[in-house]
Write a structure and sequence with these properties.
There is one protein chain. This protein is of the alpha+beta class. 29% of the residues lie in helices and 24% in strands. It has an 8-stranded mixed beta sheet with strand order 1-2-3-4-5-6-8-7, with helices on both faces. Helix 5 links the parallel strand 5 and strand 6. Helix 5 runs antiparallel to helix 7. The radius of gyration is 18 Å and the shape is globular.
């Protein structure tokens, strides 16, 4: 019996402004209207509402890209990457992080936007998801924003449905092994290092990943390993939930 493969990748879209029409979140799991603590609010990222405010702050600090596996040289590059690598992937969901202490309880997005956080590789069948990307804008770094944003996405993933979560079993975090701050941030929130995954990213040409291509047949761009951390349901029920809540309450 013959077999066929009808899969077609989504058409590549190059953007200079957000794509016209209603924004389709296109996610394979439930999408909350908002996740909220007294200090931080997460709302599903909408390029029509959030992209310009985010990128205007992001571009002020080029060093923020040092450990990211991307390069967003201009607004159009950012929109294009998000559309083709996040919005067209049903396993990915991004939230805008809003600092509720700014801009009239966060209503003024230009004043209150604090970064992006989300889910990648969402696998509802296996009750597993990865947290990423985690981008905290410089003006919100070394504040309560990071712990509250991470805490909210952890609670939404690992809390049981009766408590407002999805009852997942496993949440992972991947970081550039050289990005010690990212690894420490995850460990502070209860994640445990499982090991290092090899050759997980092909980086944009010119970006240092530490792994040179071994031949001329496997595309341009250096490779990068990733430190893998996890926080699982049994950790959560054994005290990690309470630890995360305490971290979110710290000044």
């Amino acid at each position: 019996m013959s077999v066929i493969n009808t899969y077609k990748p989504p058409a590549f879209q190059e953007l200079t402004e957000p794509a016209p029409g209603p924004f389709d979140i296109y996610f394979n799991g439930p999408v909350p209207e908002r996740l909220e603590s007294p200090r931080v609010r997460l709302v599903p990222y909408n390029p029509f509402v959030h992209s310009k405010a985010f990128f205007n702050e992001y571009r002020k600090s080029p060093e923020i890209e040092k450990y990211l596996p991307v390069t967003w040289s201009d607004y159009g590059t950012f929109l294009t990457w998000m559309q083709n690598n996040v919005h067209s992937d049903p396993k990915a969901l991004v939230f805008t992080i809003i600092d509720r202490a700014k801009g009239n309880d966060g209503e003024n997005i230009e004043e209150s936007i604090a970064g992006l956080i989300g889910y990648l590789n969402c696998a509802p069948r296996n009750l597993s998801v990865e947290i990423g990307p985690v981008i905290i804008l410089p003006r919100a770094q070394r504040t309560f924003v990071s712990s509250n944003a991470i805490g909210l996405v952890l609670k939404y993933a690992l809390d049981l449905p009766r408590d407002g979560g999805n009852g997942y079993r496993r949440v992972t975090w991947c970081a550039d092994p050289n990005n010690k701050a990212s690894v420490r941030a995850a460990e502070r929130m209860g994640f445990k290092i499982e090991g290092e995954m090899r050759w997980t990213w092909i980086l944009p040409v010119g970006k240092d990943g530490g792994l040179l291509p071994v031949d001329g047949m496997r595309r341009e761009g250096e490779g990068r390993n990733s430190t893998l951390l996890s926080l699982c349901w049994d950790d959560w029920e054994a005290g990690a939930r309470e630890h995360v809540e305490k971290m979110m309450e710290r000044v």
